[in-house]
Write a structure and sequence with these properties.
Length: 358
């Protein structure tokens, strides 16, 4: 009976790519997906696939001058579905996917590669369109798309050659037109959370190893949970409701003892935000459930206490690739449907069964 209710990870489609993929996203409210990456000739590539009748059909392809590292539909409307992109030369653009041309572009927005990008807005309820970019140059810039200059610039302190690289950025708490929170992770292990409306750093701590990814459980809700992953196989789940005025923040630390590998990222499931997956450097997908009712946190260097059956539980683990999984996205409408890309030059469509019973 345990096997019946255990969520199963199943690969439905496995397609080879003739380039290195770096990110993948479902087009909002559709069965199409976009993959970005680098060709063998160090050009940028964007491919749009349509999932139809159990196959991935290539619908369109664009080749650009520079390889692309990251992308986001966060500031895109349902009508436009424009894609925000960051490339290896520090350029930031918003691409019209139908025409294949940018309708917004900032050359040399950063001095070096843009590692991470996130976006929010294009909705009266959630305010104007804003995009945040984080780069190897250590700078974090927030762009109001009505201007070609950054609305907010967060620069690292210290000598430029030794400044920490920004590996991850994420919007959160964007539940109305004014509220904005921003999470930032650096290669030296620093995690910082800013309240952008108050122009204030509300949390900062060092976790010793590089922060590979950051994600809030839902960016258009008041801040609730944030998750971070590191180079040394750790997942930190932050309870942001307990953030106090003394800059203290409780978090649950999980060590990936199953695979003992770098965790490249995590993604909360949009329909059940107590469930998330982690992407392993050994090609593994780990599925976790967070039971947070009456959960007690201790300091990150100590053990944690549970009340009853409240815990962070591994539901399933499956190695589905020979190389690191570099990009993953849940479908926001179709329950349990996901897509991912990995460094074995492949795109996979996966389904997760029995999640409603987890």
């Amino acid at each position: 009976s345990d096997n019946i209710i255990t969520p199963q990870i199943q690969i439905q489609i496995n397609k080879h790519l003739n380039y290195i993929p770096f990110d993948i996203k479902w087009l909002p409210y559709s069965t199409k997906l976009v993959i970005i990456g680098q060709t063998p000739y160090s050009k940028g590539i964007i491919q749009i696939y349509h999932l139809i009748k159990g196959k991935l059909d290539l619908e369109s392809e664009y080749i650009k001058e520079n390889p692309f590292k990251c992308c986001s539909f966060g500031a895109s409307s349902f009508a436009s579905r424009d894609l925000a992109l960051g490339d290896f030369e520090g350029n930031f653009l918003i691409l019209d996917l139908e025409k294949g041309i940018p309708n917004y572009e900032v050359k040399k927005a950063h001095k070096s590669i843009i590692y991470s990008i996130d976006a929010v807005g294009n909705n009266i309820k959630y305010g104007t369109e804003e995009v945040v970019t984080g780069s190897k140059d250590g700078c974090v810039k927030i762009w109001d798309l009505r201007s070609d200059k950054p609305a907010i610039l967060l620069e690292p302190k210290g000598i430029e050659e030794n400044c920490p690289e920004c590996w991850s950025v994420a919007f959160g708490g964007c539940f109305n037109r004014d509220e904005r929170n921003l999470g930032i992770g650096y290669d030296n292990g620093d995690i910082k959370i800013y309240d952008l409306r108050m122009d204030k750093l509300i949390y900062g701590q060092n976790f010793k190893y590089g922060i590979c990814s950051l994600e809030f459980d839902k960016k258009t809700n008041p801040i609730n949970k944030m998750i971070a992953t590191t180079l040394d196989s750790k997942i930190y789940l932050f309870d942001l409701k307990n953030l106090d005025n003394n800059n203290n923040l409780n978090c649950h630390k999980l060590i990936d003892e199953v695979n003992n590998t770098t965790i490249w990222g995590t993604k909360f499931m949009p329909q059940k935000r107590d469930i998330f997956i982690s992407m392993g450097g050994n090609g593994s997908l780990n599925l976790y459930k967070y039971k947070n009712n009456d959960f007690n946190f201790d300091d990150i260097d100590n053990t944690h206490n549970n009340k009853g059956n409240r815990e962070l539980k591994l539901l399933n683990s499956n190695i589905i690739s020979k190389q690191p999984i570099i990009g993953f996205d849940w479908h926001k409408i179709k329950f349990g449907l996901s897509c991912l890309v990995s460094f074995d030059h492949s795109v996979k469509i996966c389904t997760f069964n029995n999640l409603n019973l987890a």
